[in-house]
Amino acid sequence: MDDKNPPLRLVDADETLDDSDVDSRHSRSVGDHLHNAELLVEILPYIQRWRGKVIVIKYGGNAMADGALAERFAEDVVLMHQVGMLPLVVHGGGPQIGDLMERLGKEPEFRDGLRVTDAETLDIARMVLVGKVNRDIVGSINVHGPLAVGVSGEDGGLITAAARNPELGFVGDVASVDPTLLTKLFSEGLIPVMSTIGADASGQAYNINADTVAGAVAEAIGAEKVVYLTDVEGLYEDFSDKDSLIRQISADELQGKIDSGRVTDGMIPKIEACISAVNNGVASAHLLDGRIPHVALLEIFTDAGIGTMISS
């Protein structure tokens, strides 16, 4: 064979490609294609089932902080939109707020796990959530097309807030949700990305827990699902035993775990939001490990699912 004209091949230059290599590569290729085809067939009924349904996704934690995971998340949301689902992203930003406070020399104060929010801290929270985090998420989705629009709970009377506790300052609870703005955005074929600043009747702004907002918005808009991306695989019977992951549980059973003190503090806002959502018309709530790429798609579009599902 003329060394000046070597054959085109996809192996290292010092390797020899014999018939067995060709057969092996062909087998692997066919096997991969069959697996992909089977996966497409598996997701088809789910695409049909969820078409036109609102899926609220609470986005935060490591899934937001990791650049590669943030890109995968944007791809997931765009795919949901492209197959006819109506994704609505509700995001947090606690670590980002803490980082800016530290850079500004302001010491954060917490009581019972909640950030004490004076007027200056509220301004910082608004700058971070509305002006930075929200824009970053919208931008990552819009890489794939002009699809996402950022909104705040203050926009269009979306969230009416009420003070939670005077000692916490401008930390709010959800008094009511008016989904009119979100419905209009869906009708225009857009993906709402929502930050969780709300306002009371006088216009005073409050920072509200994003887990609580996601559940309340899911209830108000009649969502099919509310999905929480967390930093754990789901809910465990015993957190120290990784084999005790709860795959499915009813809202009543979950309420019993809260009443018996078996749910840790950090999970309580998520759990309470899930219980309220499924008891008020949302078909199911899901606790998923946001550190897993494409985890929302695995839960929504596959038979086995992943994480913990709460139903009524």
Explain what you see.
- The protein is an alpha/beta fold and 312 residues long.
- It has one domain (52-311): Acetylglutamate kinase-like (Carbamate kinase, 3-Layer(aba) Sandwich), CATH 3.40.1160.10.
- It is 43% helix and 21% strand.
- Strands 5-8-2-1-11-13-14-12 form an eight-stranded mixed beta sheet, sandwiched between helices. Strands 6-7-10-9 form a four-stranded mixed beta sheet. It has a two-stranded antiparallel sheet with strand order 3-4.
- A hairpin with a 7-residue loop joins strand 6 and strand 7 (171-177).
- Helix 4 (94-103) packs across helix 5, helix 7 runs parallel beside helix 9 (268-278) and helix 8 packs antiparallel against helix 9 (268-278).
- It starts with 18 loop residues before the first helix and ends with a strand.
The main sheet orders its strands as: 5-8-2-1-11-13-14-12
Shape: globular
CATH superfamily: Acetylglutamate kinase-like
How much helicity do the residues have? 40-55%
Average the pLDDT over all residues and give the rounded result. 87
Oligomer: single chain
Radius of gyration: 23 Å
Unreliable stretches covering 5 or more consecutive residues: 1-14
CATH class: Alpha Beta
Estimate the strand proportion. 15-25%
User: Can you write the helix and strand succession as a string?
Assistant: HEHHEHEEHEEEHEEEHEEHHEHE
> Any idea of the CATH topology?
Carbamate kinase
How many DSSP E strands? 14
The CATH architecture can be named as: 3-Layer(aba) Sandwich
Largest sheet: 8 strands, mixed
Structure class: alpha/beta
The number of helices is: 10
In whole angstroms, how far apart are the ends?
Answer: 71 Å
Number of individual domains: 1
